[in-house]
Amino acid sequence: MRALTWHGKHDVRMETVPDPKIVNPRDAIIKITSTAICGSDLHLYDSMIPSMEKGDILGHEFMGEVVETGPGSTLRKGQRVVVPFVIACGQCFHCSKQQFSGCENSNPAETQDLGEIAYGTAMTGLFGYSHMTGGYAGGQAEYVRVPYSDVGPIVIPDGLDDEQVLFLSDILPTGWMAAENCQIEPGDTVAVWGCGPVGLFSIQSALIQGAHKVIAIDHHPRRLELAKSLGAQVINYHDVKVREALMAMTGGIGPDACIDAVGMESHGFSIDNVVDAVKVATRLGTDRAHVLREVLMACRTGGRVSIPGVYGGVGDKIPIGALMEKGLQIRTGQTHVHKYLRPLLDLIGEGVIDTTFLISHRLPLERAPDGYKMFKEDQNTVTKVVLKPDWEKEAA
Amino acid sequence: MSDESIARALQSDAPLTAAVRQRDVANAVAEERGWHEAALVGRTITINRPRAELYAFWRDFRNLALFMENVERVTPGDDRRSHWVVRAPAGRTVEWDSILTEEVENELLAWESAEGADIKNAGRIEFRDAPPGRGTQITATIVYEPLGGDLGKLVAKLFQKEPKIQARRELRRFKQLIETGEISTAKTSDAAPQG
Fold first, then answer.
1. A110 touches chain B (CB under 8 A)
2. Residue of A26, A76, A106, B113 with fewest CB within 10 Å of its CB?
3. Does A113 lie at the interface with B, CB-CB under 8 angstroms?
4. pTM summary value
5. Is A134 within 8 Å of B184 when comparing Cβ atoms?
6. B127 and B136 in contact (C-beta within 8 Å)?
7. For the segment A192-225, what is each residue's pLDDT rounded down to a tens digit?
8. Quick one: closest CA in B to A134, which residue?
9. How far apart are CA A167 and CA A173, in angstroms?
């Protein structure tokens, strides 16, 4: 099959690789119909992520058609499914608590060691995201092997297009959980740092969940425009002092809840051993931790802080005094995607949520390397690239 | 037990393998058994299944080859003796007989290698109820005599140079197999055509 493979910094290639096969009983093979490039894929593209190996297949936002199933799969051939980027077994303690991104079993035993060194606990398996998270082949390909296919994928009813449901695999539930972690109450103002895909979906979700007002912070004009179109008030941090603006816009109190949808440039998987962790985090803590600092300083006393933006190593100069003295609550974590699939699919079906506004570019899978380059170089206009494996066949 | 730190470690409710001065504990074990040295490995894991089920699975020693990566087979002999065949690098195998020294149903299995074992080893698996609704906590403690020479190198490779890593991987595979019915892997099947 054809697949996008990683070879090093700013070097991704379309190559012919072996087709995936059923390995374990609960596996399914999915023929990809649509797949997206995620903002976090850029960290792989920038070679920020250790434990990548040449030839690894990328991609963790994808959907497609079931073409093969193992004896333990509950899927049937021909079904259209969206697959969560988090791989979860459904049987461990964390899965039983619906904390799917804490699944203890989906990362193979031999690739759990790195997380234990870096975080004190092994990480969960993810698609197409380095060997620290399992080394699973990703979905920017014609086919993908989906483990625990009886637990993760959600079957999509006829009548909903790929583009309406594709983002269920990652960024939509990530934005939704970011808003949910704000525990929004009537009258609340929610401030969102970062108007990338997750930030925009956080804005949309916060408004649906009852926020009185959402304030969005970014510097890309196009992204601020999108935030505005969703109903947010905006702050361009190139022109305005963020904390002062937020205080003025909230009657001198500060936002009730704050979402850090930026994270560090060095993100969650950028550690491969302790030495690297210290080195990488120290180097990158300087340019990105300021969002978290700003959030903690801006949030109102007794407010809530939600961190969907990914942090990877150790940060310093975090205003722990503000955190404690103001009695802030912090909630964070990789998305428990499985938990949100059904309710969000329903909201899409009812027309309450439309995510298609985000898609700025559609390309044949074969042009995936161009997609990465565009996304990397022009984050103002390139808000989301969707790749279609079928397109080159139609063209041929 | 002359060393104060061992005594302290043994007084604590924590497993021996968490001792701050683990080497002292290992030395005491070696002295007790007449080994020239002992290495101590331990790990606790929680498995979301009832204690009796896990105990029964483990007590049938043939099952251990299902999740222990290098174990080719375990053949039960009489009630207390079993024969272990373990794959080693370069197509070799190491073998030993293991004797069950203690058995408390649903709580404890302890063993020791018999006379003439390629690798002298002993260990215990303890099964305890986890907090309500969380299944069972299993603590594995293994001691073995590290060897010099060719066989020593072989054993070092066998344990991937870091027995702790080996032990936690084995327990994770056990957990995966019991909880999910399969062992997680990102590797493609050997049968898959390449190219």
1. yes
2. A76
3. yes
4. 0.90
5. yes
6. yes
7. 999 999 999 999 999 999 999 999 999 999 999 9
8. B186
9. 8
